[in-house]
Each structure stands twice: as structure tokens, then as C-alpha cells.
Amino acid sequence: MRRARRTSLRKFGLGLQETWLASIENLCNISAIDMATVTISPKFQVVIPKDVRDGLALSPGDKVEVIQLEGRIEIVPVKPIESLRGFLKGLTNTFEREGDRCLS
User: What is the DSSP letter of 98?
Assistant: First the structure.
């Protein structure tokens, strides 16, 4: 049945399936995503693949958050607050306040 449906779509010149797949691929950039499969150990542990660890600059002892979202698991690195020191360097904080906003 799948083949017949594809043929009928092509017969009308729509090519909807190919167009839909191409748009999803562009939207999600699927071709650039390289997913690794890991196995859960008997102790419910997983190993983060080396290329992922290197890409996120993870090292032993780093903290990660494990979040359950809509039937999937997301692991998000938690960076220490000290790592934010200086990230606003070079920003100027001079601006004109409106007269009614001044305290004095």
C-alpha cells in the first residue's frame, strides 16, 4: 500500500513525501547530527562518548542535570557560577535614565 500511495502522489506531480522529508531535514539539520548509541549498564550507568565529552569540554567530576522530557532523556552540563566571571567584559553600562525614574 505504501508503494501505491507514493506512486499516486508522484502521478499528480506533488512529491509530498520527498518535500516533507527535505523540509524536516532542513528544519532539524538532521544530516549534521551524529548520534551515538550508549548502553545502560546493570547499575543503570552510561558512558558519554568521547567526541561528546570533548565537544562540551566535560571532565571527570563535572556535574550534569538529567531531565526527562516527553519520552526522552536530556543530559545538560552544569557549569559552575565561577565560569561566568568576566563574560560581560567590555560592555558599557552608561545609559540615560528617564527623569521620572531617578531616585534623587
Answer: P
H or E element in which residue 15 lies: none
Helix (H, G, I), strand (E, B) or coil at 63: strand
pLDDT of residue 78 exceeding 60, the answer is yes
Q: Which residues contact 38 (CB under 8 A, 6 or more apart)?
A: 46, 47, 48, 49
Q: For residue range 35-61, what is the model confidence (pLDDT) as tens digits?
A: 788 999 999 999 999 999 999 889 999
Closest CA to 66 of 58, 57, 75: 75
Closest residue by Cα to residue 35 from 18, 21, 55, 17: 55
Domains defined for the chain, CATH in brackets: 1-33 (no CATH), 34-85 (2.10.260.10)
